[in-house]
Design a protein that fits this description.
Helix 1 runs antiparallel to helix 4. The relative contact order is 0.18. By secondary structure, this protein is α+β, with helices and mostly antiparallel strands. The longest helix has 27 residues. Helix 2 links the parallel strand 1 and strand 2. The protein has a four-stranded antiparallel β-sheet. Helix content is 33%, strand content 17%. The radius of gyration is 21 Å and the shape is elongated. One 2-acetamido-2-deoxy-beta-D-glucopyranose (NAG) binds next to loops. It holds the Pfam family Cu_bind_like.
Length: 187
C-alpha cells in the first residue's frame, strides 16, 4: 500500500509541475517594448520579434496613440507589399491584445498610409518546433487567428521547456501504469 501511495504522490507532483509549466508558458509581449507601436525612433520590429520565442497562447500587445496609428492583421503578400486595402482584421483602440492561437506566421502592420513602408510592421512567428505535448486543457481550441501559410525554413530553435514537458508527461504516464500495476498486485 505504501508503494501505491508513493506512486500516486509522484503522479500528483508531476501533474502539478506540468500545470505550473502550462501556466508559465503563456506570455504577454508588448510590441516594441517601451517604444510601443510607432514610427518614431525607427524601432526595428524585425529585430524585436527575432529576440522572442512566441508560443501558442501568448498575447501580443500593441500600445499606441490611436489618433495616429492602428493595427491590421494581413496576409503575407499584403505584408510584403504594405497593402492595407483588405486587412483580415483591424484593431484601433490603441491598447490591443491579440492572443496567438496557432502556429505559423502572423503578420501585422499599421494601416496608416506610409507607416508600413516606414517599418511599422511585425511578423509574429510561432515556430513549429515549439509543439507541446497535448494536455486536456490545451486540446480542442478552435483557432480564431489563422496563421498565414508561408513556405520557408523553420528554425531549429528547440525550446528546452518543451522537452521537459514531454519528459514529465512520459513520467506521469509511466507512474499511472506503475500505480495500476502496484494496486492490482496489492489486491
Ligand atoms: C492590394 O490588395 C488587393 C486585395 O488583395 C488587390 O486587389 C490590390 O490589387 C492590391 N494592391 C496593390 C497595390 O498591390
Ligand atoms: C490596456 O488595457 C489593460 C487591460 O486590458 C489595462 O490594464 C492597461 O492599463 C491599459 N493600458 C493603457 C495604456 O491604457
Amino acid at each position: 500500500m505504501a508503494l501505491v501511495k508513493t506512486a500516486l504522490a509522484l503522479v500528483f507532483t508531476a501533474t502539478t509541475t506540468l500545470s505550473v509549466l502550462q501556466i508559465s508558458s503563456a506570455a504577454v509581449y508588448k510590441v516594441g517594448d517601451s517604444a510601443g507601436w510607432t514610427t518614431i525612433g525607427n524601432v526595428d520590429y524585425k529585430l524585436w520579434a527575432a529576440t522572442k520565442t512566441f508560443q501558442i497562447g501568448d498575447i501580443i500587445h500593441f500600445e499606441y496613440n490611436s489618433q495616429f496609428h492602428n493595427v491590421m492583421r494581413v496576409t503575407h503578400p499584403m505584408y510584403k507589399a504594405c497593402n492595407a486595402s483588405a486587412p483580415l482584421a483591424t484593431y484601433t483602440t490603441g491598447n490591443d491584445s491579440i492572443t496567438i492561437t496557432n502556429r505559423g506566421h502572423h503578420f501585422f502592420f499599421c494601416g496608416v498610409p506610409g507607416h508600413c513602408q516606414a517599418g511599422q510592421k511585425v511578423d509574429i512567428n510561432v515556430l513549429r518546433t515549439t509543439q507541446m505535448a497535448p494536455t486536456p486543457s490545451a486540446l480542442p481550441s478552435p483557432p480564431s487567428v489563422p496563421a498565414a501559410k508561408v513556405p520557408g525554413p523553420s528554425p531549429s530553435n528547440a525550446v528546452s521547456l518543451k522537452s521537459l514537458k514531454s519528459l514529465l508527461w512520459k513520467l506521469v504516464l509511466s507512474m499511472v501504469v506503475f500505480a495500476g500495476f502496484v494496486s492490482s498486485a496489492a489486491a
